[in-house]
Amino acid sequence: MTQKTGVFLINLGTPDDTSVPKVRRYLRQFLSDPRVIDINPIARWMLLNLAILPFRPKQSAEAYREIWTDEGSPLLIFSQNLTKAVADLLGDDYMVRLGMRYQNPSMEAAMAEFRAAGVERIIALPLYPQYASSSTGSCLEELYRIAGADWNTPSLAVVPPFYDHPAFLDCQAEIARESLGDLDQYDAILMSYHGIPERHITKSEVGNAGHCLKSDSCCDRFVTANRYCYRAQCFHVSREIAKRLNLSEDRYYVTFQSRLGRTPWIRPYTDIVLEELPAKGVKKLGVLIPSFTADCLETLEEIEMRGLESFVEAGGESLKMVPSLNDHPKWVEAVCTMVREQGVAATTAMTV
Ligand SMILES: C=CC1=C(C)c2cc3[nH]c(cc4nc(cc5[nH]c(cc1n2)c(C)c5CCC(=O)O)C(CCC(=O)O)=C4C)c(C)c3C=C
Ligand SMILES: [Fe+2]
Ligand SMILES: [Fe+2]
């Protein structure tokens, strides 16, 4: 009997519903992760229980209600649709499952299904283009923990962050072209990425070379020290998308959104730039968000609703947001390509 290969798509996760208790449960699990709030455990417990959880769940639940659909959270629905489409395209040799790092469907449940089906080789694909310890790192830590606890430990192959994979970059550019139409009708294009604290960038530096965030140009090209640098990977994606869209450097901006707390996060900040652009003559803006593979709270509410509002208040006229990759057929194909490549690499590694 031929064994199926497991394909494990992993995403961040979302609350089960928009009630304050469910949003609180989600935020508690998410923000208790030491890779997300990387301070000493006692300080994290105090921050979470005294400053964040008494207030934020109510505010976040209201935001979630703005984007929730009849079927549920957009992040979950798009991730489930992608999983189904990838399963259809890969065919019977593969068993494809979705697992969320926080809440449901949990990574544990998906791994239990692989176990029950006797799947002994799993290709995991964290659905984040760029590496951050708080996203990819956290998913992989959880994956290795679950797999390592099995009596019959499965073989794992991992698709690495795909910020430089042509299938991902071509797909981003094509969806942008489809959605924005003629780029000449925009005064500028903004590429906004989820931010992370600056400290996370310096902690990711390879070999303590004193490179990261030490100069304005530290993220402009790759050297050994910044191989894991989330910000450098975001700039790389932006340059590659711009190349594919024939956008010159003076026609696009790269910014970072969704910051939390008072410590410095990587700059420039999306909300500040959105308020500054109209004064620079940018009235019609196209926006891409290439750190998310599925639309979610941070694209639909933070950018398409609140971002538009503050841009217009500052004198802007229109903001057109490009949808995330979601379950676009080109993205489904790209995911299958990356999975197949990793499968071949893993098989070769096992036979040498
Ligand atoms: C690109 C991937 C992501 C990274 C890196 C990331 C880091 C990060 N996030 C927070 C805090 C919050 N993020 C929240 C929502 C959220 N974050 C991502 C992705 C990344 N986060 C997604 C896809 C979503 C949306 C989830 C959805 O249900 O739609 C939230 C929750 C919402 C809110 O209350 O604002 C928080 C909080 C930190 C602190 C962090 C890195 C340190
Ligand atoms: Fe986040
Ligand atoms: Fe960097």
UniProtKB/TrEMBL annotation:
It is an enzyme of class 4 (lyase). CDD domains: Ferrochelatase_C, Ferrochelatase_N. InterPro entries: Ferrochelatase, Ferrochelatase_C, Ferrochelatase_N. HAMAP family: Ferrochelatase (MF_00323). Catalyzes the ferrous insertion into protoporphyrin IX. One of its GO terms (biological process) is heme biosynthetic process. It is found in: Cytoplasm. It catalyses: heme b + 2 H(+) = protoporphyrin IX + Fe(2+); Fe-coproporphyrin III + 2 H(+) = coproporphyrin III + Fe(2+). One of its GO terms (molecular function) is ferrochelatase activity. The gene is hemH. Its EC number is 4.98.1.1. Pathway: Porphyrin-containing compound metabolism; protoheme biosynthesis; protoheme from protoporphyrin-IX: step 1/1. The keyword Transmembrane does not apply. One of its GO terms (cellular component) is cytoplasm. Its main location: cytoplasm. This is Ferrochelatase. Keywords: Cytoplasm, Heme biosynthesis, Iron, Lyase, Metal-binding, Porphyrin biosynthesis.
